[in-house]
Design goal:
By secondary structure, the chain is mostly helical. The protein contains 5 helices and no strands. The protein is elongated and about 50 Å long.
Length: 98
Amino acid sequence: MDDSHRFEHFRTQVQPAISSKLVEFQLLGLDSVSEQEFWDFLIKKKWKKKKEEMKLYEIIQEILSVKSSDYINFATIEAYKASEFSMEDEDELKELLK
């Protein structure tokens, strides 16, 4: 089974934990984090290297232990990866070096 979908069958069961974490993020000023973005963080970062199957309580524990700084770091790196900045574009390079 593909790693990115390995825990997908738990998603509806852990939805209350995800909602709780998103409320916590909102209290900390992270209003724009969606449930799908948070789930992508869990799949791509938190559980990227998990080899063994996890139990439901372990998944919930990991969701509730996520720090806002962990998510912010992940989102920042993903934004950099998604940007179309090129050192070959002279205008963009000048803008960067202002």
